[in-house]
Amino acid sequence: xxxxxxxxxxxxxxxxxxxxxxxxxxxxxxxxxxxxxxxxxxxxxxxxxxxxxxxxxxxxxxxxxxxxxxxxxxxxxxxxxxxxxxxxxxxxxxxxxxxxxxxxxxxxxxxxxxxxxxxxxxxxxxxxxxxxxxxxxxxxxxxxxxxxxxxxxxxxxxxxxxxxxxxxxxxxxxxxxxxxxxxxx
Length: 185
Prior knowledge:
Layout (H helix, E strand, L loop, with lengths): L9 E6 L6 H11 L4 E2 L2 H7 L7 H19 L5 E5 L2 H12 L4 H9 L4 E5 L17 H13 L5 E4 L3 H16 L8
Parallel strand pairs: 1-3, 1-4, 2-3, 4-5
């Protein structure tokens, strides 16, 4: 796996179950803070896959996500927003297959993030051919919450209307950029 090249750029990852507004929030924050954001590599990869995906594809997706993060870091203006990261792949791998490739777990320990924004499931589900398990959103959210609670990087739960989410996320990112530790909200 590639190394983390983020250096002095602050990295904020928007994380959470499927269909919880991660991409929309990533794009909004990047625009608001005049910077760039990293799209979810899994979408691009799966859109171009001519067969059902399997556990072995998750390592390729992880490598692609790291590559996109590294590429976009060089274009970032003080802060980089990431629509998901390797924790998403880890959680999905355990949820769907019961295990996670050790190389993904090792890469997680080598990556740096300054803040996680954990999106809640209070946005209505929108059907999409790449989305699975609309009836498992609460269970998946619990897995994400537990994962965030068990790692050392600060995280803030993002809930409510799209406007509420934008306002809260903007406020905590401003705290981060002012070298203040974002407070759980």
